[in-house]
Design a protein that fits this description.
The strands form two sheets. The protein has a five-stranded mixed beta sheet with strand order 1-8-7-6-5, covered by helices on one side. It has a single domain, classed as Thymidylate Synthase, Chain A, CATH 3.30.572. It has about 290 residues and is α+β, with helices and mostly antiparallel strands.
């Protein structure tokens, strides 16, 4: 299955093109979707959305230091000497001597900043011992805009896909802010798709989301309603000043990445404490996953 999310000039319009606000559930749905997307960009485990302390306290920012346990950071035993001093490489001690942590998101940003036509701005999620659903993000700067290709091994259409589309779009927006690009189209590809029996009732809801049809609502009205959702307004405030603001040098990408990442961490933790069980139930009901099965 493939889906193309059209490009957009602004952050609110980009998010609206993925997930329109719908009826009374719009605020809970949008807040949950943005938090889920930020969780993936920041590299937090899924459980961090549902319980904060004490078991996951290590993921909460405290002194502003980089989180070396972000899951988006890959561990490797060797990095070529020519790359060992790059800002996206951290040297750490490991069981077999010196190992390296490679921050894939920052690496992609630096590659795009240094060579806008690069084909190597890739963030991989696969692990040797685990077949993840999300395989990778591939960022491409083409025709003056940043595109994203999101590839999935397997996609749950009813509960998973709406969040997966939102995840990719937010990642694209954050990368556009770091690299000073405009927001292009997003291509979502899934090799395997499925609908579970208990989720059949949610098919119509997902069909409406996946069509991404803005024809029934004027775009300015959609943008206005999106901006009135607190978390979207705050996300916009973090990234929109940097969208299209060209960075001065490849080294500047690192500084901007740190600025944006710190603000995204603060935004995530501020709203995550309000993501209660009751809110989760409302979101799941909206998608057709009924809790009385």
């Amino acid at each position: 299955m493939s889906a193309i999310v059209p490009g957009a000039d602004g952050v609110a319009a980009a998010l609206a093109s993925v997930d329109l606000p719908r009826r009374g559930e719009a605020r809970a749905r949008t807040t949950f979707s943005v938090l889920h997307a930020l969780r993936r960009v920041l590299g937090y485990p899924e459980a961090v959305l549902y319980e904060r302390y004490p078991t996951l306290a290590k993921y909460a920012p405290s002194d502003g230091a980089p989180h070396l346990d972000r899951t988006i950071v890959r561990s490797t035993e060797h990095v070529p000497d020519t790359l060992a001093d790059e800002p996206w490489v951290t040297r750490v001690g490991g069981p077999r001597g010196c190992e390296f942590l490679v921050d894939q998101f920052l690496r992609s940003a630096c590659l795009l900043a240094h060579s806008p036509t690069t084909r190597r701005a890739l963030v991989e999620f696969g692990e040797p011992h685990r077949s993840r659903c999300l395989l990778h993000w591939l960022f491409l700067a083409r025709d003056g805009a940043l595109r994203l290709n999101q590839s999935m091994r397997s996609n749950d259409l009813v509960v998973g896909m709406p969040n997966d589309l939102f995840d990719g779009r937010v990642a694209q927006i954050v990368m556009a802010a770091i690299t000073g690009s405009s927001i292009g189209a997003m291509h979502h590809h899934a090799a395997i798709v499925q609908i579970y029996r208990q989720d059949i009732a949610g098919v119509d809801s997902v069909a409406a989301l996946s069509r991404m049809d803005l024809s029934d609502v004027p775009l300015p009205d959609v943008e206005h309603r999106m901006k009135t959702t607190p978390i979207v307004a705050e996300l916009t405030a973090v990234v929109e000043p940097w969208i299209g603001a060209t960075i001065e040098s490849p080294n500047a990408a690192h500084k901007r990445w740190r600025t944006v990442l710190n603000q995204l961490e603060q935004l995530f933790w501020k709203h995550n404490s309000a993501c209660s069980s009751h809110q989760r139930m409302r979101v799941e009901h909206l998608l057709g996953r009924y809790l009385d099965r």
